[in-house]
Specification:
Rossmann fold; 2 domains; six-stranded parallel beta sheet; 14 strands; 462 residues; alpha/beta; single chain
Length: 462
């Protein structure tokens, strides 16, 4: 009996409610993973709630330009109900947020700042925590909010780490500004680990970080689950070599290397760089941006518009942690790929077996691979099936849903639920929900269809 269809005619999580708690981010890899989590749980038959938490103070909950921008660019989240919460500007003065969060932040401590923000983000007034059977949290810093959600009740929590965030903060501090004494990497990592350890299961989407977290948190449960993303459809007869990048520190380092050391070796290539990384290059190195401004196409409304005229996908990755969503997109397109080995980090892929993938870690070799790839395309001698077949085998929504369904069923089977405290009250915040899609009382009482097998703690390296 499969996990996904554990009883005749019924999906594995039929009658269950899953709350996906996540940062209010859009147009990035994390957002795509969150969108896939929601699709996967719905495929398993669950009712899914999205709870978006802003990673900064806002004028008021659910109001302001950042919330408006988030809603505009997150319409792909197919949740049955959507809620929002955040700390507010008033919290800087009414609470100890200024001392406990902002002061560490100006020394580069993003970990403490985000945790302190989430401690002050109130639970949505209309959020029915009694109905929630499983919480799927994204990133360690949402855990203070999650712990208030399950106060007085044993709701199991799956926590997607995405990557070692302390490394991302260290990169951000190298490219940004902070005042001495500068926070140390180990201090931010300690904050991260403290909150990760509170989850029932830590899910990792990169094999390297799965192993690392297994060593750092040996008494926690760990699982390696590669996410899925919606496949990208490439246009026919494209002519561009494309590079897609959001504006972050790791991508800036990669784009800078590409522009300074690779582009001069391939002047005849037709290249387009998509995404708001243009803003990052313009801000950090304006002369470099102006020299290559003709290559930048800016932010795009949907990823397929970048692939519409693509012939080659470029992944000149020099920095980055977690799983590269850009790499997964490229694989799904079936187009030839020119990449550094770091673009395939933590994926356990032997890229030498993919006939339409060219790996080069040296700048001149990367440029030469671009030219070789173009010549192969002109001879109509590509093997587009290799990368798409790999995507279908390893990163499909069906495979992702099966893995999530497996761990969800085992966690819920082993969880011991206790009644909510009668005096528990939730603070007010805005809720963004479609009442027509709320679950009925009959649905709430429907019986689980998971196989009743408790989850067991395993050696994290197996």
């Amino acid at each position: 009996m499969s996990i996904q269809q554990s009883a005749p005619g019924r999906a594995a999580l039929s009658g269950k409610t899953v709350a996906v708690v996540h940062p209010a981010w859009h147009s990035c890899g994390t957002h795509q993973v969150i969108a896939s989590q929601i699709r996967a749980y719905k495929k398993l038959g669950a009712r899914v709630i999205s709870i978006a938490l802003m990673d900064d103070v806002t004028p008021s909950i659910s109001r302001g330009e950042r919330w408006k921008n988030y809603r505009l660019h997150s319409r792909d989240l197919a949740a049955d109900e959507r809620y929002e919460s955040s700390a507010t500007i008033a919290d800087l003065f009414k609470t100890a947020l200024l001392k406990d969060g902002w002061l560490p932040l100006i020394h580069g401590d993003h970990a403490t700042w985000l945790v302190e923000l989430m401690k002050r983000a109130p639970l949505p007034e209309k959020l029915d925590t009694v109905a929630i059977d499983l919480i799927h949290a994204n990133h360690f810093f949402v855990m203070p909010f999650v712990e208030r959600m399950r106060e007085g009740r044993r709701i199991p929590v799956v926590l997607d780490t995405h990557d070692i965030q302390a490394r991302q903060y260290e990169l951000r501090n190298r490219a940004g500004f902070s005042i001495p004494p500068h926070v140390r990497y180990n201090s931010m990592l300690a904050v991260e680990l403290e909150w990760l350890g509170r989850a029932d299961l830590c899910v990792h989407l990169n094999s390297e970080e799965y192993a690392t977290f297994g060593q750092l948190l040996p008494h926690s449960r760990h699982a390696l689950i590669y996410p899925s993303i919606a496949p990208v459809r490439a246009g026919a007869n494209g002519v561009q070599a494309i590079f897609v990048a959001a504006n972050n520190a790791a991508n800036y380092i990669s784009v800078r290397w590409f522009l300074k050391y690779i582009v001069p070796h391939a002047p005849e290539m037709s290249i387009s760089i998509f995404g708001d990384i243009a803003d990052g290059v313009k801000k950090r190195d304006r002369p470099l941006y102006e020299k290559h401004c003709s290559l930048f196409r800016g932010r795009i409304a949907d990823i397929e518009s970048a692939y519409a005229d693509a012939a080659i996908v470029l992944l000149p990755t020099r920095e980055g942690h977690g799983l590269s969503i850009k790499t997964m997109e490229a694989l799904s397109s079936g187009l030839p790929i020119v990449a550094t080995s770091k673009a395939f980090r933590g994926m356990e892929i032997d890229s030498s077996r993919l006939r339409n993938v060219y790996i080069a870690d040296d700048a001149s070799e990367f440029a030469a691979a671009m030219l070789k790839c173009r010549a192969t395309i002109e001879r109509n001698d590509t093997a587009a099936g290799d990368t798409r077949a790999l995507y279908d085998e390893e990163y499909s929504l069906e495979r992702f849903a099966r893995r999530l369904g497996d761990v969800a069923c085992k966690l819920m089977a082993s969880a011991r639920h206790t009644p909510l405290d009668a005096g528990h009250r939730k603070s007010a915040t805005g809720a963004w929900t479609d009442p027509a899609r709320r679950r009925s009382p009959a649905d709430r009482s429907s019986r689980a269809t998971c196989d009743e097998k408790p989850i067991r703690r395993k050696n994290p390296h197996h």
